[in-house]
Amino acid sequence: MDYANLIQQLTILALAAFVGFEVISKVPQTLHTPLMSATNAIHGIVIVGALIVAGAASQGTVQIVLGTLAVFFGALNVVGGFVVTDRMLEMFKKKPAPAKKEGGTS
Amino acid sequence: MTAPLIASSVGGGTTTEHIINVAYLVAVILFIVGLKKLTSPTTARQGNMIAGLGMVIALIATLFLEEIVTYEWIALGTILGAPIGYFSAKKVKMTSMPEMVALFNGVGGGAVALIALSEYFHWTDTGAGITTDVEVASLFSLIIGSISFWGSVVAFLKLSERISGRPIALPGQKLINAALFLGAIGIAGYLLVSSGMDPYSYTIGIAVLAGVLGLFFVLPIGGADMPVVISTLNAMTGLAAAAAGFALGNSALIVAGMIVGASGTILTNLMAVAMNRTIAGVLFGSFGAGTGGGTAPAGGGASREGATVRSTDAASAAILMAYAQNVIVVPGYGLAVAQAQHTVREMADELESKGVTVKYAIHPVAGRMPGHMNVLLAEADVPYDQLVEMDDINPEFERADVAIVVGANDVTNPAAKNSPDSPIYGMPILEVDQAHNVIVLKRGMSSGYAGIENELYYDPKTQMLFGDAKDSLSEVVQELKNV
Fold first, then answer.
1. B322: in domain
2. Residues 245-304 of B with CB under 8 A from A
3. Could you list the residue range(s) of the whole structural domain that residue B205 is in?
4. Residues B59 and A41 sit within 8 Å (Cβ to Cβ)
């Protein structure tokens, strides 16, 4: 086992956990659904793994099927995730300027 | 000792590899910056786009990995998957957002499980030796990914009402689940300690056991507990992705997966607190058995003898609100069911044109996933600065002339504060009973998810406006125009 490598990766993991907790805990309740949808899209990063297994050399039929299916799932996850999050966030608007109070740019 | 499919992100490597790793670093930074921008509605959309840019960079970089030699299967999977993702995301109704999120979450988990299987087969076919840490990570991602995929499928089916939202459980469900889990772990452990055997059947066995566990894990959970389930599955897919990052030696996967894992964990916890439940209670308990079914506890109806309910009509409600200074709207999921979001906003517009200040009080679990109600109201063009979170709006109820409750029940029940023997005692609620007048829009006197009566309805200052929420609100809007 490559302990140096493993420990380095565990370090990355631990720091990522803290960054995640820090950033996410500041997201207001109003945006929790888009947040979940956005993180959903971000874990679509698994498509990177799917690309690696689907693009690998010397594969049997089973692996080709698994890899292609993984890319299919990953692509669905990434594209759908970001698009649907954008659709939601587009709807969040401030009160339009002509309103009586707390005017602002939309 | 051979490295996994992709060379590790540390140590030696070609120039291309270094560039790719820098691209991953940039991608991860963009993810974090994007998420940071999600902390405010003004920058949130930009944040999502920044995260999306990070994803594009990571994907393009990956295509240059020297391990990737053939592109036809990648192209095929993308051509099939991307348009389906795009069009379903464009078409989905905002009320259906929870099942959409469940579905996207599930396919993410499924992809992780498939990657793990494929890697295992690759190792077997090539006879490549793998290190224990890589194997552990791979097995972890296989188990969690499978649970997440099948669990999300059930959540999707329940939320989209393709199957009943009622809890479905076998006798001895907990024992069966424990057996499935131990079985999957057991095979995984055997794979780890043994060597030189054909793992095909074993890995598939693990995937099947974990998949069935995923099904059994979500089936017994009632519709009202879905916000917790979706958040949990979200966290699980994130962790599975991080584990896949270990297996593939890919730091972008580790960081992105872990951040999602952290996010899902935070939301799971928030949802459980808002419903006055422990996470373990939701996931492994059986309180959910009453949810969705609306089974009232024995004797629940008898306790209210003598107490009267005052009903009102649209005209009186309109006049009451038209001459108020502060009106707080308390929307619940019933509002979305009645498709009354737009009507409620029309009412608010009418009131504001008469100089009334209107705010919306949003309980964390109003809707079917965290923050769902905000999205539904945003869709109806309610400005987000009028949507006020529970902790911020509660002190304002005592200054409110009218609180109008539309399709919310348990989250307004004062019993959560006043009656230590109530099942919902301790649940954080919107303190609607502090308002000077309360108008409750409701079809009838049926109880809410928790199956208990709402004391609020018997409060002398409460008036009930019976009927379909949308019809009642339309009448109120008409009356307001005449005031």
1. yes
2. 245-246, 248-264, 266-267, 270
3. 94-284
4. no
